[in-house]
Write a structure and sequence with these properties.
mainly beta; 54% strand
């Protein structure tokens, strides 16, 4: 099991507020060469904004729109030979 928690502060030149998120990965090896895993990303909120700079006085000389990052859950099957 892997658990990642991150706390992101509001950026000075961004209109995006601070947020906290968590990712989780649970894996099981029923056989030595086979791994089954389920992963969840951004589990604390259904969605949050990332990136985005206002441009005027920003560290970067361009304007970038923020992106909406969604919660995601997926699985994997890994066989090593």
């Amino acid at each position: 099991m892997d658990l990642i928690f991150r706390d992101v502060d509001a950026l000075t030149y961004s209109r995006i507020p601070a947020y906290a998120e968590m990712d989780l990965r649970v894996a099981w090896r029923p056989r030595p060469r086979l791994e089954l895993a389920v992963m969840g990303q951004n589990l604390l909120d259904a969605a949050h904004q990332e990136g985005g700079f206002t441009g005027a006085g920003a560290v970067f000389p361009f304007v970038a729109d923020p992106t909406e990052t969604q919660r995601g859950v997926y699985g994997s099957v890994t066989y090593t030979y």
